[in-house]
């Protein structure tokens, strides 16, 4: 079989600009410094603003830049690794858990979550909202979905919403015997509520980590965590336990 010679493809203009901008960030700007506005940057580098935006978006995705409401585009600080995967494979809320419960309620699950739990999507369940911070900065937000059948000991007089109910659901969940868990990671876009929690703009790149917890031969709970993709990378521990690390400034 003969071979096909591929024609060389020119480097996209925005990609070359990204490299030039990256060099400028290293030599001309300090961490936290606000970049000039798009008009000034486009004029400096002699490119269209659409090309400039593509380059800036790539640098944000790579963690070199941060866009913040009311501030503008700033140079991102050095990254710091924060392990996400729990090597002990414990229930959410167990001692040493870095997540903080902020609210809880009863509501129907999204269709994808209902399928993972093998339940009717019209049936309500317990939802626990949690956040995670590093150096006081929000780096992830999570919704934990727990079917009512999984926490039968939940007190009937527990508040219908709020942190107290969240702690109560987590406490009851830990009474179950955890048999294992698995995780899936996808790249997504921040929804408005998640973006607000993470101090990002809606539509910003995020990593969505879905964790299933198994007990009694079934999926007992599902957690959907949203991480800032501009400061996140995947690392691997051993051959059977992939780990996610968040790099937050």
TrEMBL record:
<dbReference type="InterPro" id="IPR000524">
    <property type="entry name" value="Tscrpt_reg_HTH_GntR"/>
</dbReference>
<keyword id="KW-0804">Transcription</keyword>
<keyword id="KW-0805">Transcription regulation</keyword>
<dbReference type="Pfam" id="PF00392">
    <property type="entry name" value="GntR"/>
</dbReference>
<dbReference type="Pfam" id="PF07702">
    <property type="entry name" value="UTRA"/>
</dbReference>
<dbReference type="InterPro" id="IPR028978">
    <property type="entry name" value="Chorismate_lyase_/UTRA_dom_sf"/>
</dbReference>
<feature type="domain" description="HTH gntR-type">
    <location>
        <begin position="11"/>
        <end position="78"/>
    </location>
</feature>
<keyword id="KW-0238">DNA-binding</keyword>
<protein>
    <submittedName>
        <fullName>GntR family transcriptional regulator</fullName>
    </submittedName>
</protein>
<dbReference type="InterPro" id="IPR036390">
    <property type="entry name" value="WH_DNA-bd_sf"/>
</dbReference>
<dbReference type="InterPro" id="IPR050679">
    <property type="entry name" value="Bact_HTH_transcr_reg"/>
</dbReference>
<dbReference type="InterPro" id="IPR011663">
    <property type="entry name" value="UTRA"/>
</dbReference>
<dbReference type="InterPro" id="IPR036388">
    <property type="entry name" value="WH-like_DNA-bd_sf"/>
</dbReference>
